Amino acid sequence: MPTEPSYGEGRQSLVDAAIAVVAESGLRNLTYRSVARRAGVSHALVAHHFGSRDSLLVAAVERALERSLDEAPLEDSGGLERWGQALARSVATHPDLHAFQFEMALEARRNPEFQPHVERLYEAYRSATRRALRRHGIDDPAMAQIAFAALDGLVFQQVVLGHESWTRDGVRALRRLLAHVVGV
């Protein structure tokens, strides 16, 4: 019989299990039972904590954003090079976290209920990119959008193809491009 996690850890472990299930098997395979199996608990506990699959997914999107920004914080004052290294390492260490976010972005096209949550996810990344660039003297929202789009693409390619060096090299090239265009 599965055992329940200690108080306070249950909900978070279920959310982390949902992220892993979606990343590994896709949204169509996300069920209370698959999350419970992954977390080592009963499926009734998943239903108790979330009440619906959509509520579980919304909580998972929030958790994924929190974990991603903790893993490779754009607020780090170590510069774009150092941040690029942290980003590539984060994707290599936690590919499921990033794969989950891309799965949810695609699902938002099919299920409008998720659109606001995915928009909030992307807005948090765009805002963090804007703040990071502002610290380097670039206060141009369009430039921040382009930089974020490049970073998002690099992360997607690393998730799909597994080439950590492409992300590191891409961030270095983005820095050079920004320096050339804006004079950073």
UniProtKB/TrEMBL annotation:
Residue ranges of domain HTH tetR-type in the record: 8-68
UniProt GO MF annotations: DNA-binding transcription factor activity; transcription cis-regulatory region binding
Pfam families: TetR_C_31, TetR_N
Keywords attached to this entry: DNA-binding
Record-linked InterPro entries: Homeodomain-like_sf, HTH-type_TetR-like_transc_reg, HTH_TetR, Tet_transcr_reg_TetR-rel_C_sf, TetR_C_31
Gene3D superfamilies registered for this protein in UniProt: Tetracycline Repressor, domain 2 (1.10.357.10)
UniProt key word DNA-binding: yes
Entries under PANTHER family matching the protein: HTH-TYPE TRANSCRIPTIONAL REGULATOR RUTR, TETR-FAMILY REGULATORY PROTEIN
Name used for this protein in its record: Unannotated protein
Organism: freshwater metagenome
